[in-house]
Design goal:
It is found in: Endomembrane system. Pfam families: DUF1232. This is DUF1232 domain-containing protein. This protein is mostly helical and 128 residues long. It has one domain. Helices cover 71% and strands 0% of the residues. It contains five helices and no strands. Helix 1 crosses helix 3, helix 1 crosses helix 4 and helix 2 runs antiparallel to helix 3. The model has no long low-confidence stretch (mean pLDDT 79).
Amino acid sequence: MKAWAKKLKQQILILYLAYKDERVPGYAKLFTACVVAYALSPIDLIPDFIPVLGYLDDVIIVPLGILIALKMIPREVIAQCEIKAKELMKKGKPKNWVAGSLFILIWVVVLLGVILNFPFGMGFAWPV
């Protein structure tokens, strides 16, 4: 399990580095940026406290996104980024606080929508 997690981290760093390479096509850069931002985000789209679904992104969505992104990037770019990623692995994983802030904002909007609209469907009206 630890080896799988380490390989996943390395692949995320490879994508992070490949995103910056001008040889990567625009559509691949866009997809790669989304995968890296989501993977490095301190906040998950599906919070881990939700039973079963909470870990779905960690086990299925992120690895699938990495796999698709790696297939979009030219092989020579990946080979060069693998070398750089090994060096970065020694320093630690970068955090994407912009993406994390975006996910926090999404959850706040969803929760506010639920809180403000939930009672109305049950025949309850907020006092004015």
